[in-house]
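Please, structure for the following, as tokens.
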Amino acid sequence: MTPTQLRLLQMNDVRLVGRLTRDPEVRYTTKGQAVARLDLAVNRRFKDGTGEWRDDTTFVPVTVWRDAAERCKERLRKGSPIYVEGRLRSTNWETKDGQKRSGIEVEAYRLQFLAKMTEEGSPSQESAESDTDAGESSPSAPAPEPATVGASSSAPSTLGDDIPF
């Protein structure tokens, strides 16, 4: 078998748990579809060569489309913990002064809000991990529904001038 005949598995799958570094930013395409930009901080704790604990934080941009974007706007705030499933997507754009830019972001297809909501409608600081199990939920409280982004796996190609963020 020659290298050109070799077929590789095509996989583009991302799963992250982290906290938002700012409130979600929601905009609308020219066709009226909501798109939210989330900035997620993902932490990794490890021991360095001297045996001391170190923290490494990675900042990841996440894009959420349609109804899920609206739910993010309503329920998430800076510091909210969230679980994200999605795919990596490369983006290219031109700045207002004509410079070409590129970047990688996660395009979310499933979200799980990991904080309970307070009576005022804002996320509480206590964890809701026991309520977020996909297969089981406690009898006293229903499990929160995941925010699933529409059936289409590709984002609309006609975006307004101010997107990407």
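The first helix runs from residue 66 to 75. Residues 126-145, 150-162 have pLDDT under 50 and may be disordered.
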